[in-house]
C-alpha cells in the first residue's frame, strides 16, 4: 500500500516536472527550471522506494505510461496540441499495456 503511494507521488512529480520542462523555454526561465530540477530527482527517488515491493516492469510501466497519458492530455488541453484517432489509439494501447502488467502481478 505504501509502495502504491510512493508510485502515485512519483507519477505526479514526473508530470509536474515534464510540464515545467515545456514552460522552462530551454532552461531560460527560472521557476519552471527550478521545478524541473527539483521534481525529477524526487520522482526518481520515490520510484526507487516503490521498487522495493513493486516489480520493476510493472512500476516503470505504470510510472511512464501514466505520465505519458496525462502529459498527452495536458498537451491537448493546455497547449492546443493536435490529437487524432491514431494518437488516441496509441495512448489507449499504452494504458491497456499498463493495466495488463498490473493484472499480471505487482509483487516480486
UniProtKB/TrEMBL annotation:
State where the protein is found: Cell membrane
At the top level of its lineage, which domain of life is listed? Answer: Bacteria
Q: What GO MF annotations does this protein's record show?
A: transmembrane transporter activity
TM ranges are 30-51, 58-79, 85-103
Alphabetized UniProt keyword annotations: Cell membrane, Membrane, Transmembrane, Transmembrane helix, Transport
What Gene3D superfamilies does UniProt report for this protein, alphabetically? 1.10.3730.20
- Topology of the protein relative to the lipid bilayer: Multi-pass membrane protein
- Major subcellular location class: membrane
Q: Which GO terms describe its cellular component?
A: plasma membrane
Family from the record:
Belongs to the drug/metabolite transporter (DMT) superfamily. Small multidrug resistance (SMR) (TC 2.A.7.1) family.
Descriptive protein name: Multidrug efflux SMR transporter
Q: Give the originating organism.
A: Frankia nepalensis
Amino acid at each position: 500500500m505504501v509502495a502504491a503511494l510512493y508510485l502515485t507521488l512519483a507519477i505526479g512529480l514526473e508530470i509536474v516536472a515534464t510540464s515545467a520542462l515545456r514552460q522552462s523555454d530551454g532552461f531560460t526561465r527560472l521557476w519552471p527550471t527550478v521545478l524541473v530540477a527539483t521534481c525529477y530527482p524526487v520522482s526518481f527517488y520515490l520510484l526507487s522506494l516503490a521498487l522495493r515491493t513493486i516489480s520493476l516492469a510493472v512500476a516503470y510501466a505504470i510510472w511512464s505510461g501514466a505520465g505519458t497519458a496525462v502529459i498527452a492530455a495536458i498537451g491537448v488541453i493546455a497547449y492546443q496540441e493536435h490529437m487524432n484517432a491514431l494518437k488516441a489509439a496509441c495512448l489507449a494501447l499504452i494504458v491497456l499495456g499498463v493495466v495488463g502488467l498490473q493484472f499480471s502481478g505487482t509483487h516480486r
